[in-house]
Amino acid sequence: MTALEGITEVSPYCWEIPATGAMRVPGRVFADRNFIEKARAEKALEQVMNVACLPGIVEASLAMPDIHWGYGFAIGGVAAFDCEEGIISPGGVGYDIACGVRLVRSNLNVADVRDAVPALVHEFSRNIPAGVGRKGDIRLGHKDLDSLMGKGVPWAISNGFGWPDDIAVIEDGGVLEGADPAFISKRARERGFAHPGTLGAGNHFIEVQQVDEIFDPEAADAFGIFPDQLCIMVHSGSRGLGHQVCTEYVRLMGGAAARAGIDLPDRQLACAPIASPEGREYYAAMACAVNFARVNRQVMTHLLRQSCEYIFSSSAEKLGLGLVYDVSHNVAKFEEHEVEGKKRRLCVHRKGATRSFPAGHPDVPERYRGVGQPVIVPGDMGTASYLCKGTARAMSESFGSTCHGAGRVMGRRAAKKMIRGDELKRELESRGITIRAGRTSTLAEEAPAVYKDIDEVVEICHRAGLSSKVARLKPLGVIKG
Amino acid sequence: MKAFETIEHTADIGIRAFGSSREEVFENAATGMFSLITDLESVKPLDEYPVSVEAEDEEALLVEWLNELLYLYDSNSILFSRFRVTGMDANRVRGIALGEPLDPGRHRLDTDIKAVTYHMLRIGRVDGNWSAEVIFDV
To answer: What pTM value is reported for the model?
Structure first.
C-alpha cells in the first residue's frame, strides 16, 4: 500500500482518507498519484473531508478522478445520504442544476460531409442563442413554464420540440418525479423565461464531432455509433432558473441547518434533513430545474435538427439524427443501492459526476439494457470527448457514478494571462476545427491547457472500473458562448 | 487604497474588496463584481435603482446585497457601474445602484456570473480598515 501522509491507496486508483475529527465516514478519491497530489495541493481533499462530516452520509465521501476545488463540495464529488437521518444540500448539487450533456448521432460519414462542417457550425450559431445574457426565441406564458417544469421533456415533445423516441434515452424519461412549480419563486421564473433553447456561456458548448476511435464495438453498435460518424454534442444546463433556485435554497438552508443543530464546516455546505419541510421543498424546486435543463437541451436538439435539415437538404429522420443519450452531472436523486448487503434508498448527490448504471439495471433504457447506460464525458475543444458505458463495479464502488469531464487545473484569469484567445483560435483552425465563440477571451478561459488530460481521466475511470470506454469523439466544429 | 482586487480560484473567481467603512466595502464589492461582468467605463450611471436587503448576519448580508444586484442585472438586463450604500445596520442594507439598460452595441459582456456563494466568505476589519472576500460561481 502506498501512503501519502495518511492517505492510502486501498485498491488500484482508489485512495482513502481515514475518518478523523468530525468525519462520520472516510473519504475516498478515485485517482492516480498525480491527480491525488494535485487535489491535495489545491485543498480539494479538505472539501471531501468536510462533506464526510454531514449527517446521515453513507459509506464514504467520494470523489471522481476529475476532482477539483469547488465551493463547499469539491467538483467531482459524490455523496449518498440516508433518507431518514440524512440531509440534502443545494450546494451539493451546484448552481447549474442538471447541467449535463447529450449526444446526437447521425447516419453521416464525416468523409462525405467534411466540407459542410463550417456551414453547419454557422447555421447552429445562427439558430441557437449562445453567450452571456443571450435570450431565446421561445416565449412561454406562466402556465407553460409550470407545465415545462412539472412535466419535463414529454411536455416539450408534445409541443413539437423533438421526437417521441427521444424520451426513452434521457435519464428518468426526461422528467424527474416530485417537481412542484409551487416552490419556484417569481425571481427564478423571471430568470428562466427567456432561457429555454439557449446555450449559455462558460464551459457550455455545442460541438460537431467525429467518432475517431471505437474501444467496444458491441456497445458502440448498441448505441448506434460507428467509425468516422458525424455526431453532435450539447453541453448546457438550467441557466438562470437553476442558479436562482440554488441561490435561494442555500440561504434558506443556512438557517435550517442551524435549527437542526448541524455544525457546518463551510457555509456553502448549507443543508437540511431530507425529511424536513425545507429539504422536501428544495427537492421539489430542484426537480423543476432538472426538468428545465433537460427541456433546454431538448429544444436545442430540435433547433440542431432543423439546422441539419437546412444544410443537408434532407429530413432529420433521413439523416438519422437520433438521440444517443442525455446525462445530468449536477443533481441529487433518490436511488436504491446495496450497502453492506442490504438494499437501501439513498439520496445520491452528484456534483460534477455522471451516473454510470450497469447492464441489466431497470433505469437503463430497454434498448441499452444488454450493455449498460451510455455515459457521456465532454472534453475540451482541442482534444476529445468520450462515450462510455456504466458498470457493475460503479454500483459497488461509487453509488453508480463516474467522472463528468476533464476537470479544471487552471483558473480563468491565469488562463487569460497565459493564453491568447485569438492565437488559440488560429491554432485550432489550423487543425481543421471550426470555432465560433461569442468572445475570444472565452476561448482562452476554456483552452485545453486549463483542463486535465481527458484521456487520462477517462482511462483512470476505465481502469478503476467506474465506467468502460466505448468510443472517442474529436471535435470538428465548436460553438462557445 | 485600492477598491478591490480579483481572487483566483481554480474553477471560479472572486473578489477582495477594501474600504474605510463597512458601507464602502459593500460598495466596492459591488463595483468589483460588475467589473468582472463588463467594462465599467462603458456603463453610464444614468438611472437609479433602489436596493434593499435583509439577512441574519453581516456575511450573509454581503451575499444578499450582491445577489440582489445580480438578479436585477440578469432579469432586467441592466448594467450597473456605481453603488451607494445609504443605510445599514447588522441585518439590513439599503442603497442605490446606478447604471443603464444593457446595449449589446456598446457593452461587451465578459464573465457570466451565475451566483454569489458563501464559500470562503469573509468580512474583516484591521486597524479601522475593512475588507471582504467573496467567491462567485461562474
So the answer is: 0.94
